Amino acid sequence: MYEGPVQDLIDELGRLPGVGPKSAQRIAFHLLATEPADIERLQSALQKVKEGVVFCDVCGNVSAETTCRICRDPKRDLSLVCVVEEPKDVQAIERTREFKGRYHVLGGALDPLSGVGPDQLRIRQLLNRIGTATDGVDISEVIIATDPNTEGEATATYLVRMLRDFPGLSVTRLASGLPMGGDLEFADELTLGRALSGRRSM
Fold this sequence. Notes:
The structure is a single chain. The chain contains eight helices and six strands. The chain is an alpha/beta fold and 202 residues long. The strands form two sheets. The protein has a four-stranded parallel sheet with strand order 4-3-5-6. A two-stranded antiparallel sheet has the order 1-2. The longest helix is centred in the first third of the chain and has 17 residues. The protein starts with a helix and ends in a 5-residue tail after the last helix. One of its GO terms (biological process) is DNA recombination. May play a role in DNA repair. It seems to be involved in an RecBC-independent recombinational process of DNA repair. It may act with RecF and RecO.
């Protein structure tokens, strides 16, 4: 335990996701040794994040304007929507350069134990989007790309139930299975089972 502001800083840093007590202490002492100009830049960046970042009115992704650059892009396929949990998931899919449609960010996953139900997520907005044509184009496929964990699976199951009544709508789920370069002997049963059930012809 350190005294005063140093311990306060360590405590606050330790509350960040993925930052343990040792990392928080290391970052705090790094900041103590940092030049004042660098600290000011960090403070300014944090302030701008809270004041200047908004969420896209269409998809819920982080944006500098009311509509994000992906939703403004006229080359995007309006009939395809990929549903993800968080804005960081949009970037993960964009890096593949395989998806040419638009996104819908839920803002999390269903987690009743933590008090996150359907009303806390952007599910109603998704249903409204599917029921409304954009520039005369109806959404024909929804790709559910939630995380392959308990909460993500519960969210995917709930969405499938909500979307099955839309006529002509195809609802798909990202395939899950073995990572490239992995060994079969180290795969857990669930991953290996998914890989088998999701096998495709060669």
